Amino acid sequence: MTTSHATGDLDPRTRRLLEAPIIPTLLRLAAPNVLVMLAQASVGLIETYFVGKLGTDALAGMALVFPIVMLMQMTSSGAMGGGIASSIARALGARRRGDADALVWHAVVIAIGFGLCFTLALLLGGRWLYGVMGGTGAALDAALTYSNWVFAGAVLVWLFNSLSAIIRGTGNMAVPANVTVVGVVFLIPASPLLIFGIGPWGGMGIAGGALALLLYYLLGSLALIAYLRSPRSLLRPTLAAFQMRWPLFRDILRIGLVGTVSTVATNLSIGIATALTGHFGAGALAGYGTASRLEYLLVPLVFGLGAPLVAMVGTCMGAGLRERALRATWAGAALAFGMAEVIGLAAALFPRPWLMLFGHDPVMLETGAHYLRVVGPLYGFFGVGLVLYFASQGAGRLLWPVLGNIARLAVAGTGGWLALQWGGGLTGVFAAQGVALVVYGIVIASAIAGGAWFGRVGWPRTTQGLLRRVAQA
Prior knowledge:
By secondary structure, the chain is an all-alpha fold.
């Protein structure tokens, strides 16, 4: 394929995004990124494993806080991080190197601002929020202890994820991957040491898990800053580039803020299900919270594929290569569906091995297994919707992913509430979550296949019509 302009003066990483075969390039870029996302997801799993040793109340407390922690993670890494990576990729694709360098500083300022907002919101409103979500007694106390520690250091989480997004926007997935993997190696001994102590020191309990997490983000941020200051970095965020310009803030925020709406809707869906499940006691709450972590595990896995897709689609759109951007999008959607569906089916068939990693309470195991059997077989639709969200970030067109997520929220929340009102119990609550995932994936895929990125939506009238549009793209 010929490009719209000569590419001989482009950096090899940028030229690869514009010219190399799509699927091999996506897989090659995704491999380290999936590794980094698996490692980052294991951070939460490591914590959950060790906190589970403290008892069901501690596990239930983490279940209350986890959707909010993931909201921060997904907002900083997926929503605003996607806006950062997309802006840098499009600037590099359009040969605006000065803007790309300046965008680094703008991204750091945004990270600090949002991190402080999360700190204030959760330190002041945490007790009310976790109470509304069903937390009481010892479970609520554990939630507050963990939450206050984690969100006191929210700026570190935001800074780490924003710096990673900056580097991924250049097409470099390896550096964030390496930093994260090394960080997980640090966390494996640090987490139990701080939770349980050693020798005469008795440890910090659940607060120790939070402190270990913050140390991981602090050390990781320092490593990423060192890379950006090194000669190996494609970007040059010098002090001369530190000039705040509203158009650059707007370029990040117009994608990041819209993406945040989508992220909030995702986490509200799970938060509402957490609150509805809380009606059935701490054991059920721990079971749902533990089982739903598998869905959260899919987020970083799909993000591992979605991050290079943001870079490829953004660079192609910046260079005017619309057809290539769409072909990359559908290739990513097929890969994401297959990966998420395999995981969901395995969890539905064999739920207990996953759940027993975190505890052996009979009610917890029964509730968690029930959720995975009902919702797991539909995880493929979640994978499709999520990867198309990332592709839409690269294209700078997020309306339909947001509408798809809002539709998911409406179905999950309304359906779950009606299930309780009509006596459907947990089966009805979980079924509503599954149907919501199907709606989420189909709405976004249909809109993009209908031309939503380019100002028109010609809805395919049948499933065959949708598949034909995808094949033609």
